[in-house]
Amino acid sequence: MPVRTRVTVPLRFADGYQTDAGMVTFDGLSDGKEHLALALGTPGQFPLVRMHSECLTGDVFGSQRCDCGPQLRESVERIAAHGGYLLYLRQEGRGIGLYNKLDTYTLQDAGLDTYQANRALGHGDDQRDYSAAAQMLTALGATTIDLLTNNPDKVAQLRQNRIAVREVVPTAVHASPANLRYLAAKVAHTGHTIVLPAVH
Ligand SMILES: Nc1nc2c(ncn2[C@@H]2O[C@H](COP(=O)(O)OP(=O)(O)OP(=O)(O)O)[C@@H](O)[C@H]2O)c(=O)[nH]1
Ligand SMILES: [Zn+2]
């Protein structure tokens, strides 16, 4: 069965965002998860897209351990200005789930980096599969896009799933003393393209 959009619900943000959105649900996604798309601004021929992986601690509670909260807000604002989609993907903890991510935080507090902690608990470095995201974009008619990311794996996986990524648009760097070690591990281990401030 081809993936189809299901409903689009108008969403007015309470505060913090200067935009309204259409929240889109889907039928037939291959992984059976409740992924969402936010349609923002007026998506044109080359919509700006962000694939945002769920991070309850950062997105909802503003945890300083990672950069997810500021990245989410930056993405909504930039996409609303350009026109496009924010895909909110239910891939908490790079695909290992919330409880497992919280287990890795206790190991990170004992000195392991974010990838070592995943492996110590028997998980892969990054278990995310973006084929459902490609299905969502195809159902939205967004098959040639500009992608907001610093993660080369997101670009490669979309291209493998027949989404033409025309331009890779970097996000801002949301570094702070609390998340610098985490961001540095991403750059060192996975070829993330962010340029971090020097550590003193
Ligand atoms: N396992 C694990 N997951 C984490 C940790 N910190 C953040 N995450 C998860 O990482 C994901 C966020 O990754 P993204 O914002 O897509 O970041 P990215 O892969 O660096 O890609 P871009 O931001 O697009 O460059 C979310 O699912 C978070 O829950 C951690 O220490 N351990
Ligand atoms: Zn996070």
From TrEMBL:
<keyword id="KW-0479">Metal-binding</keyword>
<keyword id="KW-0862">Zinc</keyword>
<keyword id="KW-0342">GTP-binding</keyword>
<dbReference type="InterPro" id="IPR032677">
    <property type="entry name" value="GTP_cyclohydro_II"/>
</dbReference>
<dbReference type="GO" id="GO:0005525">
    <property type="term" value="F:GTP binding"/>
</dbReference>
<comment type="pathway">
    <text>Cofactor biosynthesis; riboflavin biosynthesis; 5-amino-6-(D-ribitylamino)uracil from GTP: step 1/4.</text>
</comment>
<dbReference type="InterPro" id="IPR036144">
    <property type="entry name" value="RibA-like_sf"/>
</dbReference>
<dbReference type="InterPro" id="IPR000926">
    <property type="entry name" value="RibA"/>
</dbReference>
<feature type="domain" description="GTP cyclohydrolase II">
    <location>
        <begin position="20"/>
        <end position="170"/>
    </location>
</feature>
<dbReference type="Pfam" id="PF00925">
    <property type="entry name" value="GTP_cyclohydro2"/>
</dbReference>
<dbReference type="GO" id="GO:0003935">
    <property type="term" value="F:GTP cyclohydrolase II activity"/>
</dbReference>
<protein>
    <recommendedName>
        <fullName>GTP cyclohydrolase II</fullName>
        <ecNumber>3.5.4.25</ecNumber>
    </recommendedName>
</protein>
<dbReference type="GO" id="GO:0005829">
    <property type="term" value="C:cytosol"/>
</dbReference>
<dbReference type="GO" id="GO:0046872">
    <property type="term" value="F:metal ion binding"/>
</dbReference>
<keyword id="KW-0547">Nucleotide-binding</keyword>
<keyword id="KW-0378">Hydrolase</keyword>
<dbReference type="GO" id="GO:0009231">
    <property type="term" value="P:riboflavin biosynthetic process"/>
</dbReference>
<keyword id="KW-0686">Riboflavin biosynthesis</keyword>
